[in-house]
Structures are given as C-alpha cells and as structure tokens.
Design brief:
36% of the residues lie in helices and 14% in strands. By secondary structure, the chain is an alpha+beta fold. The strands form three sheets. The protein has a five-stranded antiparallel sheet with strand order 1-2-3-5-4, with helices on both faces. The structure holds adenosine-5'-triphosphate. Adenosine-5'-triphosphate is lined by residues 40-46, 48, 61, 63, 97, 113-116, 119-120, 166, 176-177, 179.
C-alpha cells in the first residue's frame, strides 16, 4: 500500500510541486522527467522504484523517501548521511551504487541511483542454496576491490551483508545501503561514534532506535566496545564469504543476543568439505582483534590491499579484468 501511494503521489502532486527547477534551466531532472515503472523493494523508510528517464531512455532505481516518515521516526540524519556518503563516493567505482541526482518535492526526497536489475545477493543465495566456489571467489574479489576504493575515500560501510550487495545486469556486485556508512575524519582516531552503542548494553525496548548493524555480520569490536574501523568491514567480508560457500550464516543463534554471544566467543565451525584456501581466508578475517585481520594494521591504518590479494584463495583472480570478465556460473 505504501508503494502504491508513493507512486500515485509521484505521478500527480509532484508534477506541480517539485522544487527542482525547469530541467532545461539547470539540467537537473525532476520527478516528471521519469516514468515510474514498478516497485523494486521497500526499506524501513523508503520505497525504491524502477523508473525510466524520459530524456534519455536510461533506466534507474529511484529511492523515494517520505519526509513526514523521516521526521516522525527521527531519521532525517540517516537519510542525509546516506546522501553525503554516496556523494563522496561519486562515480569512481563500478562496484558501488552511484547516486546520479537528488531532488525533492514537498513530500518526498528522491535519490536517483544505478539500477541493479538482478536484485540482492541474499536472494540468489537463498534460491540456490549456496554459490559455486569460483563465483564466491570472484564476488569476494569484487567486494574487496569496492571496499578498497570506499576505504580510500575514508568511508566505512559498517553493515555489509548479502542484502546490501546488489547485482547488476551482468551479475556484478554493486554495494548499496550507506545509511549506516561512516565518513572518517582523516587523521583522527577511528572508533567510537555517538550513533553507536554497545549492542549488548542496549535494553531490548531501545534497540530499534540504536543502530548496531545486522546481528549475523556485526564485528565483535562493535558489540564489545562500540568501536569501528575499516577492519570491521573485513569481518563482515569473512562472514559473507562463509555464507556464499555454505549457504549458512557463520554465526547464528536462536536470538539476536545468542548470535552476539557466538560472535564474541568466535563460536563457528566449517562444514566438512569446505575448501582449504577459502577456510584459511575466512579464518584470517574472522579474528576478534581487528588489527590482526588479514590486511589490517594498527587502528587507523589503511587496509593492505597487497596482503589480501596475496592470499592463496585469491591467487587465480585476474584483477585487471575483474569488472569486465564474465562472472563465473553462480552454481
Ligand atoms: P533499510 O532502509 O531498512 O535498511 P533497505 O536498505 O533494503 O532497508 P532500500 O535501500 O530502501 O532499503 O531498498 C529497498 C529495496 O529496494 C532493497 O531491498 C532492494 O531490493 C531494492 N533496491 C534498492 N536499491 C536498488 C537499486 N539501486 N537497484 C535495484 N533494487 C534496489
């Protein structure tokens, strides 16, 4: 129902009220320059629609965010943070969803994004049970390459998970959902931020309002000390590689609390037959001390791309053609 009302609203009212100026005047589109086609999905404060830009015929995903909802839920800062991070990341990397334009009308904010037509990696894993080792390796390399770029721009994602890895028309990864992304201040000690609380200390009734990442992928330093750094994204990468290969979460308890206990105790096992190099790679990422993870150094130091790429799990990756080679068969 929410998507229908947004679509209807988009078609009718925004025509008259859009704050974007005449496109020909500033070359900036407005809602009436798009024909809205179908709903791609719903987030907690947004509806994402597939839309065609009538001036070029190009298709995009447009994230439509209700302003009243943002205000009611006190989420304006989250939406602005997402926009700022996307602007900072720009169009410099194929593995990250690009923000092409933003505009607004009286009721909504509109983010015009790359369309990732093949949806979320999570859905692929669920549908197929797990991914082939070759495909998991290729995706691990694409995620690492995109992370490398993101980190070079002083952005930490903090909520990497298969739901936030979208697949484009060629099934290449596009990382999305920067609402919880963190812009680092260069030169400053990375870590505790006011938006984070130590997850295990938050009373259940307050958890919904305190962002603590997604239970299965959250790094232990976030749980224990509310600290985050580039290395937290490496932890999530370890969880994702494990899940792509096995189809299961590395850490999963019967409740969020029990999952956190397992993470803090590094309580996970590999199923029989798990590839040896992949196992070593995952083990070197799932390390409680963030500075000891593969490629990580002392707090605040950049991740060593060379150390990650030198791992045997990735030795067959052709980095120069990573984004142009076809993705290996998914299963
Ligand atoms: P939340 O905001 O609660 O974290 P979310 O990140 O899934 O949830 P949105 O970013 O609004 O919220 O996305 C909603 C859904 O729309 C996603 O689940 C995804 O399937 C789809 N979607 C989002 N962006 C795109 C895109 N660029 N291309 C294709 N589909 C997209």
């Amino acid at each position: 129902p929410r998507s229908r009302s947004v679509a209807a609203h988009t078609r009718s009212k925004s025509r008259r009220r859009s704050r974007s100026q005449n496109p020909s005047a500033n070359n900036r589109p407005s809602p009436q320059d798009f024909s809205f086609m179908s709903t791609l999905g719903e987030g907690s404060y947004s509806t994402v629609m597939r839309a065609r830009y009538t001036r070029t015929g190009q298709e995009y995903a447009i994230k439509i965010i209700s302003k009243s909802h943002l205000i009611r839920k006190d989420k304006m800062a989250v939406a602005m943070a997402e926009k700022n991070v996307l602007v900072k990341l720009g169009t410099g990397h194929p593995g990250i969803i690009h923000l092409h334009w933003t505009f607004q009308d009286e009721w909504s904010l509109f983010f015009v994004l790359d369309l990732a037509i093949n949806g979320e990696m999570q859905a692929r894993i669920s549908r197929m049970g797990s991914l082939s080792l070759a495909c998991a390796r290729h995706y691990a390399a694409q995620i690492m390459d995109a992370l490398d770029y993101m980190h070079s721009k002083d952005v930490i994602h903090r909520d990497l998970k298969p739901e936030n890895l979208l697949l484009d028309s060629d099934f290449r990864i596009k990382i999305t959902d920067f609402g919880t992304g963190k812009l680092l201040e260069p030169g400053r000690k990375l870590s505790v931020t006011s938006s984070l609380c130590s997850a295990s200390q938050i009373p259940p009734e307050e958890r919904a309002n305190s962002w603590v990442g997604t239970a299965q992928y959250i790094a232990p330093e976030l749980l224990e000390r509310s600290e985050t750094s580039r290395s937290s994204d490496l932890w999530s990468l370890g969880c994702i590689v494990y899940q792509m290969i096995t189809g299961r979460f590395a850490f999963h308890g019967l409740s969020e609390y029990l999952t956190w206990q397992k993470i803090k105790a590094l309580d996970y096992t590999f199923p029989e037959g798990f590839d040896g190099d992949a196992r070593d790679f995952v083990q070197r990422l799932l390390i409680l001390d963030p500075s000891q993870r593969l490629g990580a150094g002392a707090e605040g130091s950049p991740i060593s791309r060379a150390a990650l790429r030198a791992h045997p799990f990735l030795s067959s990756v052709k980095w120069e053609t990573l984004w142009t080679d076809p993705v290996p068969p998914l299963e």
